[in-house]
Amino acid sequence: MAEPRTTPQQTTPSAAPGAAVGTTDDPTTGTAGRALPATPPRAARRRGPTLHETVLIAVLGVVFGFVYWAFVQLWAPLQLAMGPLADLAANVLAGAWIVVGPLATYIVRKPGVGILAETLAALVEVVFLASPAGPLLLVVGLVQGLGAELPFALTRYRRFGWWVFVASGVSAALVTFAFNAVRFGWLGQDYASLRLGVQVVSCVVLCGLAARLLGDALARTGALDAFAIGAERRG
């Protein structure tokens, strides 16, 4: 009878403190018991905007600051066209002055992005376009951005279906109406309900739905591939 052959037991060097160690048994390569390299920890997802996201938000704020100013120029002609309901012209245009909030949120998908973009647009109107509202417009922009971003925040920035954009328009309309009702005394007027209804329709169409359509149109060009909206389309 042949004498049994024995193989000395291999020892594994101790791993550095905190390192993840695994072993593998591969008889073809002779790696039984050999320590595997430590796996680096997975990087946590950054919650705040990155540099290129911040640049995009700034660009959107500047561009829509001028867009908002253009809609201000339509205000007086619209008042003339509406005759006895001229005082509702601002409510008809209300959604057009909030669209950058949900648009920026749709593209970047991080907390506070819509509020920041809307406030930057208001800053452009005040500083560069001499808005008659003055510095108070910054507060208005913040309120508008907050109202438009709220439904996205409630979904934790994970849902971007059409219903969320409709909810964004409704939320923006209600929040800004409440703010302006206190500011201008709308609640004491006979047609306050009509004013609210007009503003809700305006914000759903010109703010919520328009933001979704604009975002999709820009994404199709490939210009937003480096952002969250582009990653979703590629996935």
TrEMBL record:
Stretches the record annotates as Disordered: 1-46
Low complexity compositional bias: what residue ranges?
A: 1-37
- Asked if Transferase is a keyword of the record, the answer is no
Pfam families to which the protein is assigned, alphabetical: ABC_cobalt
Keywords, comma-separated and alphabetical: Membrane, Transmembrane, Transmembrane helix
| Record carries keyword Lipid biosynthesis | no
Bilayer-spanning residue ranges: 55-76, 88-108, 120-140, 160-182, 194-214
Q: Which InterPro entries match?
A: ABC_thiamin-permease_prd
What name does the UniProt record give this protein? Thiamine ABC transporter permease
| Organism name | Cellulosimicrobium cellulans (Arthrobacter luteus)
